[in-house]
Amino acid sequence: MRLVNLERILNLINPAYYCLYREHYKRYKILLGGSGSGKSFAITDYLIYRAIEERNHKFLIIRKVAKTLKTSVFDLLIERLGMFGFKKGVHYSATKSPLEINFHTMNTQFIFTGLDDPEKIKSVSGVTTIFIEEVTELTLQDFTQLDLRLRGITKHRKEILAAFNPISANHWIKNRFWDNIDPLAMTLKTTYKDNKFIDETYKQTLENLKYRDPNYYNIYALGNWGLLKGAVFTNYKIEHIADKQQYLDDYMNLRCGMDFGYSVDPTAAPLLHIDKRNKVIRILKEVYGRGMSGEKISRETKLMLGPKLAMNLDIAAESADPRLRDELEIVHKLRMYPVKKGADSINYGIEYLKKFDIIIDDSCVNTAREFQLYKWLEDKDGNLLNKPVDKHNDMLDAIRYALENDMLLERENTVEAGISIW
Question: What is the pTM (predicted TM-score) of this model?
């Protein structure tokens, strides 16, 4: 006797994703989609279906950074289990440390981890399927290592499922799965129009992008590969900085900035190393999150910096919230100081950053995303203006704050030539 009617599950699935169930022999199932296409719901439902039909699974669910899983796939999976009639404490248990769901009645585990915790991945054996949420956060090397780990004899077929928004036509995943045919791969593109469960308000929000921002509409509504018109930065690359410790030990050239946010905008804080002689900036670590209290900001920042830097490194902070800055300094003992800003400080900061080669460690997924999406405003005729769009810039603002003293020093060195930076 079944615990849940499988027809009920199929009734809760968008027909666009039936191919997940039909193409059993494919090792790779790669879902490209716009926002609201339901691709993460589809994969989550598919995993539950396989757990019911086949049992005895060990599913590994991956994101680049582990802490982003709790509020994404973990919570979504619990929500979907409830939709299908399964009850926590009766049919399954869930723990936050480690982040796992044990589906006892089906003898199946859902194990959640990030690539920032490689030892955790190495310790997991007997995996039957890997689900990679936001696969564009991964490097090709990351993906290859996961692929190689999915081996050994198991009762059920092995699969890698992945979901993402196509933010860049230059990403490795396009070349790997779209530009070259792989007989072991199933690729699928969906949009919000394929999601029969989407609410009308969100549907209208996506459709309004057509008039407000055609490029974002092309990527996030239509699910087309993006080539960002008017990209502010092209002088960056995202890679794994293997020798990170040598830069962390170079105390005099480390910088940290902080941009405060809460519900809508996040709090963002990068730790970076500047090499002025060779004109290289390396983004080594980041703190990024919404709804963060002063205590949580302090905890996350100290974890990023480590004990020595937390005691000695000055942090250039957003000047608009002196109360929070004072709390971090007085109560939590971080070394904070307010930035000065200025009328033209944003554009000067952009020009200053353009003088460097910028290397973003692949663990800094929020920093990487902002560099990819930050662009210049356009007028009604599509002409670029000398002002950036006020979006995707929280980490970028914090980077500018971190480098403000370096920019001021440059100003002092050039003022005799009649150059003013703001």
Answer: 0.71
CATH architecture of 6-197: 3-Layer(aba) Sandwich (3.40)
Helix ranges (DSSP H) in 35-86: 39-54, 75-83
Boundaries of every domain in the chain: 6-197, 236-417
Look-up: residue for tokens 């608009």? 320
At the top level of CATH, which class does the domain 236-417 belong to?
alpha beta
Q: What is the pLDDT along the chain (422 residues), one digit of tens a residue?
A: 355 555 666 677 889 999 998 887 899 999 999 899 999 999 999 999 999 989 999 999 999 888 888 878 999 999 999 988 899 999 999 999 889 999 988 999 999 999 887 777 777 788 999 999 999 888 888 899 899 989 887 788 899 999 998 877 878 899 899 988 899 999 999 999 999 999 999 999 999 988 877 777 888 899 998 766 788 998 998 888 989 999 999 999 999 999 999 988 999 999 999 999 999 999 999 999 999 999 999 999 999 999 999 999 999 998 888 999 999 999 999 999 999 877 688 999 999 999 999 999 988 989 998 998 899 988 877 788 889 999 899 999 999 999 999 998 887 776 544 443 33
Token output for 215: 């490029």
Alpha carbon distance, N-terminus to C-terminus of the chain: 73
The angle that helices 394-402 and 404-414 make with each other, rounded to 10 degrees, is 50
